[in-house]
Amino acid sequence: MVTMTASTRPTPRESSNFDEVSMHQSLLFSDSLQDLKNLRTQLYSAAEYFELSYTNDDQKQIVVETLKDYAIKALVNTVDHLGSVSYKVNDILDEKVDEVSGTELRVSCIEQRLRTCQEYIDHEGLTQQSSVISTPKYHKRLDDEDDWHQFRNAVRATIRETPPTTVSKGRSPSPSPHASQKPGVFSFTSTMPKKELDKRSVSPHRFPLLRSGSLVSRPMTPNSRSTTPNSSRPTTPNPSNARRRYPSEPRKSASMRLPADRENGREVEHYPSKSKRLLKALLSRRKSKKDDMLYTYLDEY
Amino acid sequence: MARAGGITNAVNVGIAVQADWENREFISHISLNVRRLFDFLVQFEATTKSKLASLNEKLDTLERRLELLEVQVGTATANPSLFNS
């Protein structure tokens, strides 16, 4: 009589690392599959044996009872083996699906990083190309009509030595300093209405060139062109056109003179004679020891 | 005597019929369980085939994405000026 041989399972060992555990599980799985294969041959052998016994043996009832017991045990053992094998197959499949999902996540991460790199490269390329092609930039304030008037008034107020005819009514913000200008003749914005004067004195922040008081804070750049109200480019008049300021001339007198200039335009007419007197005084400064008199004269001037 | 022999035969026939029904019942139980085992195997086969097909599809998609990534990385490696600029 063929009896069901129990599957020989290896003794459970304490596996330290994952490789040993997985190897142990794979060995168990292969043993279970081998038992299932052997179970088929054992069932065929048992069927032949019971057939011969039933035909040859006289005690047929005992053979039938034995056959029943064997069939029950064989069925239970088969179900046990199939359950074990199917569980292991499901476990292995789920493990592989999890591994594939993890690999998909990693590939998605790599794709996202690659896409980010591609976007960065595109952005850098666009930045480089845009920096190569330098588009002309126009001042925003010149777009509006009011701003343009303010700018023109500011230029007029700043370059008070230039004639008002140089600033055209059009949109040419550069009053040409080489225009016909007579030395010693100054333009005190006589054409500018008083309303505009008040207007430009209201907004000193937008046009920092607007002068409200002294000339001391204004930098002296002889050859600079006063075209834009940029603070980095001080708009100073051309020295050929401007009133001559001598090095020894104290600036306090100029700052004190400015309000008077605004109030009284007649001083423009007296300026050449005063400058002559000042020149004479300066020329005679080295010769004589009358510096004190000169300073007093300048203070009075 | 004949009546007793007839009764004995009837009893034996009855016992034999009962034993036969018991055997039939046993065989039906065995066949039912074998059928359940067969159904389980068929269901297990279908489930396993479905899982394997899904896994195969995922692996195919993953293989294509990896090939695309390999080509992109190879292109980027072949043109190092992209990274130097």
Provide a concise account of the structure shown:
The complex is a heterodimer of chains A (301) and B (85). Chain A is mainly α and 301 residues long.
Lay out the secondary structure.
The complex is a heterodimer of chains A (301) and B (85).
Chain A: H1 18-56, H2 60-132, H3 145-158, H4 194-202, H5 251-263, H6 267-287, H7 291-300
Chain B: H1 2-78, H2 81-84
Structure overview:
Chain B: Belongs to the BRK1 family. Chain B: InterPro entries: BRICK1 (IPR033378). Chain B: Residues 45-79 form a coiled coil. The complex is a heterodimer of chains A (301) and B (85). With 301 residues, chain A is mainly alpha-helical. Chain A is built from seven helices and no strands. In chain A, 11% of the residues are buried. Mean pLDDT of chain A is 66; it is low at 1-9 and 164-261. Chain B is mainly α and 85 residues long. Chain B has one domain. Chain B has two helices and no strands. The longest helix of chain B is centred in the middle third of the chain and has 77 residues, at 2-78. The model of chain B has no long low-confidence stretch (mean pLDDT 87). Classes of the chains: A mainly alpha (301), B mainly alpha (85). The interface between A and B is medium-sized, with 26 and 27 residues.
Which characteristics define this entry?
heterodimer, A: 301 residues, mainly alpha, 3 domains, B: 85 residues, 95% helix, rod-shaped
Which class of secondary structure composition applies to the elements of chain A? mainly alpha
- Cα(first) to Cα(last) distance of chain B is 121 Å
What's the average pLDDT of chain B?
87
* DSSP summary, beta strand count of chain A: 0
In N-to-C order, the SSE pattern of chain A is: HHHHHHH
- How would you sum up the global shape of chain A? rod-shaped
Helicity of chain B, as a percent range: over 70%
> Helix fraction of chain A?
55-70%
Total separate domains of chain B: 1
